[in-house]
């Protein structure tokens, strides 16, 4: 079909003439509502992003070297809830001032934290020092 005829046909239907494959011989075009096409593409991209974000966020739990048992249990329960929802958990012990001499307490606390939650999670990153923080990363275990 000649280009002029195709343009006339598109105008008669109040639609757009969109080039699909410019490198073909002859070029391939389609009569369609281009605005509606772009809107549907944007909806698809938005839906894909929404599904991608549901994979899991990163939640943080903060401790200090002298965190009490009740506080520890409370924070561990919250971490369990986060893991059950499919989120990753980053637990860290903050060392302020002279607290830095209690690195062994921080390491013991994070190891206990990981072992308390090992039934529903796996350790992504072992405890390590990052400046004045000691961190451990836990990821939810895949459901069987």
Q: Pick out the low-confidence regions.
A: none
Q: Which sequence of strands runs across the widest sheet? A: 3-4-6-5
- What would you report as the Rg, rounded to the nearest angstrom? 28 Å
Number of helical regions: 4
- Characterize the quaternary organization of these chains: single chain
Approximate helicity band: 40-55%
What top-tier CATH class of the largest domain fits best?
A: Alpha Beta
- Give helix and strand order, one letter per element, not per position: HEEHEHEHEE
- Name the overall outline: rod-shaped
Annotation, overall tally of beta strands: 6
Could you say which structural class the secondary elements and strand pairing correspond to?
Answer: alpha+beta
Outline the biggest β-sheet.
4 strands, mixed
**Mean pLDDT over the full residue set:** 89
Describe the overall structure.
The chain is an alpha+beta fold and 144 residues long. The protein has two domains: 3-53, Translation initiation factor 3 (IF-3), N-terminal domain (Ubiquitin-like (UB roll)); 58-140, 2-Layer Sandwich (Translation Initiation Factor IF3), CATH 3.30.110.10. It contains four helices and six strands; from the N terminus they run αββαβαβαββ. It has helices spanning 3-12, 34-53, 69-84, 103-116; strands at residues 16-21, 28-32, 58-63, 88-94, 121-130, 133-140.
Task: Produce a short descriptive summary.
The chain has helices spanning 3-12, 34-53, 69-84, 103-116; strands at residues 16-21, 28-32, 58-63, 88-94, 121-130, 133-140. It has 144 residues and is α+β, with helices and mostly antiparallel strands.
